[in-house]
Design goal:
140 residues; single chain; mainly alpha; binds protoporphyrin IX containing FE; elongated; Globin-like; 69% helix
C-alpha cells in the first residue's frame, strides 16, 4: 500500500464511518439482535390477539413469520442481517389487506417496542422504515 492509497482509505473511512454509525443507531436503539428478538416475541401474541387482524394469520406458521420479521426489522434498522423471505408484494398479494389492518399491525409493533423499553424516537424510526411497504402490502 502506498501512502497515497492509505490516505485515500482513511479518507473513505472518515466519510463512511459516521454515516454507518448513524445508520445502525436504530438497530442499537432496538437493542440489537436480542432486543429485536424480544420485540418480535412480544409482537406475535399481540397480532394473534388483535381482532382487527388475527383472522388473517389463522393458518400461518407464526414461528416462521417471526423469524422473517426479525430479519426484516434487523435489516431495516441498519443491522447486520439479510431478509431471506419473499417480497412483500408476493406474500401479501392475495390477502386483501386494508390500510386499517396495516395500521393495526404497525400499532401492535409500537406496543411491543414500548413494552421492551424502546425509546419513542427509535420506535418512530422503525415505523417510518415500514411505511413505504404499505404500497406493497395493502391491496384492498
Ligand atoms: C408493517 C406491516 C407488515 C410487515 C412488515 C409484514 C411482514 C411480513 C413478513 C416478513 C412475512 C413473512 C414472509 C415470508 O414468509 O417470506 C409476512 C407474512 C404474512 N403477512 Fe405480513 N407484514 C405486514 C403486514 C401484514 C398485515 C397487515 C397482514 C394482515 C392483516 C399480514 C398478513 C400476513 C400473512 C397472513 C402472512 C403469512 C403468509 C403465509 O403464511 O403464506 N401482514 N408478513
Amino acid at each position: 500500500m502506498t501512502m497515497k492509497s492509505i490516505a485515500a482509505a482513511l479518507l473513505a473511512l472518515a466519510v463512511i464511518a459516521p454515516v454507518h454509525a448513524a445508520d445502525d443507531a436504530t438497530y442499537a436503539g432496538l437493542g440489537g439482535q436480542q432486543g429485536i428478538r424480544n420485540i418480535v416475541a412480544t409482537l406475535i401474541p399481540l397480532i394473534q390477539a388483535d381482532p382487527r387482524i388475527k383472522e388473517s394469520f389463522a393458518d400461518s406458521d407464526m414461528k416462521h413469520i417471526g423469524m422473517r420479521l426479525e430479519e426484516q426489522f434487523c435489516m431495516l434498522s441498519g443491522g447486520p442481517c439479510e431478509y431471506k423471505g419473499e417480497p412483500m408484494k408476493e406474500v401479501h398479494g392475495g390477502l386483501k389487506v386494508t390500510n386499517a389492518q396495516f395500521n393495526a399491525l404497525a400499532e401492535d409493533l409500537q406496543v411491543a417496542m414500548e413494552r421492551n423499553g424502546v425509546p419513542s424516537h427509535v420506535q418512530n424510526k422503525l415505523v417510518a422504515k415500514l411505511a413505504p411497504m404499505q404500497r406493497e402490502i395493502v391491496t384492498k
